[in-house]
Amino acid sequence: MAKSIAIIPARGGSQRIPRKNIKLFHGQPILAYSINAAQASGEFDRIIVSTDDAEIADLAMKLGAEVPFVRPVALSDAYTSTLAVMQHAIEVLNREGYEFDLACCIYPTAPFLQANFLREGAQLLVSEPKAAFSFSVTTYAFPVQRAIQLSNGRIDALYPEYRNTRSQDLPEAFHDAGQFYWGRCAAWLRGEVIYSPKSLPVMLPRYLTQDIDTAEDWQLAEYLYQALITSGKISQGVAL
After folding, report:
1. d(CA 46, CA 37)
2. Beta bridge partners of 50
3. Is the separation of the CB atoms in 4 and 100 below 8 Å?
4. What is the pLDDT of residues 177-213, one digit of tens each?
5. Rounded CA gap, 44 and 13, in Å?
6. Contact 214/109 with Cβ under 8 angstroms?
7. Could you say which of 12, 97, 104, 191 is the most buried, measured as most Cβ atoms within 10 Å of its Cβ?
8. Would you state the pLDDT for residue 206?
9. Which of 42-46, 111-115, 233-237 has the lowest average pLDDT?
10. Which helix or strand (DSSP H or E) is residue 220 part of?
11. pTM score, whole prediction
12. E strand residue ranges, the chain
């Protein structure tokens, strides 16, 4: 059986939403949702939070995650890539004698994350030996080929070649849902490209996806979360 680790990157700095990774979301620190989903999935031998921040580290441990190292300052600014954080965590653990087959990056601001999708991602990767990654994706709500651009207060088509194509004749487009990324540890360490044919999609319904990058995003996400609870789509953070 493959040995798996969850790595949740949660640095202390946040430019657009102060203290974003521990801000209360629907009454709980938003980090709690990612840790709880990882625990509920039953997929992980260890659940680790990679952080440079003492308050985040303390909260993570209280929530049942591990913080076995402090992330270096050089890997804690707004320009540090997810890949670099994952490589650092895997390398540190390897040096300490802990080796894993699979590592799953779970974003700390993913309150809609559901354990069943984490399990699906793991199963997909294990079942396809030639695949390097599996991650959450969802559909665009509107045909991307009909996107427009603005220039000097005027509108033009971003893809003019599709101006007269019927919507039903346009290929469906998908985007990264920004919740989790399963990968083989060797693929992470090699720095393989995630958006490639070597990756497998874990399809999420659009109602379980919401980027949270601004204060407006946060408010919208809380409205959606409450609506999902009220409608019975989720209960205690678990999909029905």
Report:
1. 13
2. 9
3. yes
4. 999 999 999 999 999 999 999 999 999 999 999 999 9
5. 27
6. no
7. 104
8. 95
9. 233-237
10. helix 215-231
11. 0.94
12. 4-9, 24-25, 28-29, 46-50, 102-106, 133-139, 148-151, 154-157, 174-184, 199-203, 234-235, 238-239
